[in-house]
Structure formats: C-alpha cells, structure tokens
Design a protein that fits this description.
four-stranded mixed sheet; about 10% strand; single chain; alpha+beta
Length: about 230
C-alpha cells in the first residue's frame, strides 16, 4: 500500500484543516485518514515523527512531514484537485497569513482555550490574550486579510482560511469570550465552516467538547473581570 497516511486527532482544531482539504478535494483514494488517538507516543509513530504531533502526513515507516500548514501546502502542491485551494497568484499572501496565524493569532487562542484540555487555568493570561485578539489580531484579519471579501484576499476559500478560521473553535471553551467576539469574526468562521461541510463532524465534536466544559475558568468573563478597565 503506497498511500500516504494523514494521521489526525479528532478533537484537534489543528488537524481539521488537513482533514477538510483531503475530503473536499476527494483525495481519500490517495491519502488514507488514520485516527492517531492514543498512538502518537508509540515507537512506530515516533519512528516517523519524533515530535509526536498531529496532523502528520506519513510517506513511509520512517518519513513524514508535520505542522498543519506544511501538510496542507504539500497536499495542494502534490494533488491537482487540491491546487485551487492554494492558488499560485495568492501564495505569497496566503503564506503570510498562515505564518501570522502560527506566530500571532494562535498563541492567543491557545492561552484561552487550552484549559479545556487540562492545561492549568491562568485567568490573567487568558484575559490578556483575548484583549490582544480583539484589539490587534482580529483587526488585522478583518481589515487587511478580509477587507470586504468573504475569505482572506479571495472570493473563494483557501487553506489560509482553513488554518485561521478552524482554530477559533477552541475559544468556545469559555462561552463569555465567544459571545464577545466581533461579529465580523464569527460570521467569517461560519462562512468557512459552510464552505467545508465535509469536516463538520470533527468541528462539531470539538465544539461540543468545548461548550460542555464546566471546569475552572469556564465562567471567566472578559468584560466583567476587568479586561477593558
């Protein structure tokens, strides 16, 4: 079997873009989807990904790539049916967005949402991250990357949208934070979900997990807890 294998973790928002791309571009004849839950620390997995993370695109027993954006780019550059999601004329812009997502936006999302996955609650850190998202990063997203278009620099969705929008599901672990997101951001999130119904099952499972979280920090409120003071 010479199929590539896309190893994923179902509740991981970082995996949802690659899953959506494989399904939307109908690559499942070429790329096998493999649920890696509970397997990423096994000797077999570590042999092809010593960083034991998902998504991982495996080529052989000792060869793979990982990092969500790298995986999506590779799929688009390898399979003609996926190429339209990484259009040549926009690649320099999309690469900028995907790097921005990793270095600027996502650390803030993680500081807010990782409590759902057992990371100890740090309310000041979460509040600071939300302030940074709303006042800085979402302004860049809405006013520069979207700038009146339905998707980033585009009238049709790309892997940059999968990278940015699907990461936002993790914010649902703190309902008051989600409720205070700018409307332009939640509308964009929903547009991307609507464009990729193939991944709805996975996004829905993570949404449910986040929305049902009742642990420490679940009731933290950006306004009431002094964020805007």
């Amino acid at each position: 079997n010479n199929k590539m294998k896309l190893h994923y973790l179902g509740p991981s928002a970082n995996c949802h873009g690659a899953i959506a791309l494989v399904k939307k571009a109908k690559l499942e004849g070429e790329v096998e989807l493999v649920d890696a839950w509970g397997k990423t620390k096994t000797p077999e997995f570590l042999a092809f990904n010593p960083c034991h993370m998902c998504p991982t695109l495996q080529f052989s027993s000792a060869d793979s790539i990982w990092e969500s954006n790298a995986v999506m780019r590779y799929l688009c550059l390898t399979f003609p049916d996926a190429e339209k999601f990484y259009p040549t004329e926009l690649r320099h812009k999309l690469d900028t967005i995907m790097d921005w997502r990793q270095t600027q936006m996502y650390p803030c999302v993680s500081d807010i949402g990782s409590v759902v996955f057992g990371v100890p609650e740090d309310a000041p850190k979460a509040l600071k991250a939300f302030k940074d998202l709303v006042e800085n990063h979402f302004s860049v997203l809405v006013n520069t990357f979207l700038n009146g278009k339905p998707f980033c620099y585009s009238n049709s969705p790309t892997i940059a949208d999968l990278s940015v929008a699907l990461a936002l599901t993790g914010l649902k672990g703190r309902g008051h934070f989600w409720d205070e997101l700018p409307e332009a951001v939640t509308e964009y999130y929903q547009r991307v979900l609507d464009a990729f119904p193939e991944v709805a099952e996975f996004v829905g499972a993570l949404s449910g997990m986040c929305e049902s979280y009742k642990g420490e920090g679940a009731d933290l409120h950006p306004s009431h807890d002094g964020l805007w003071a």
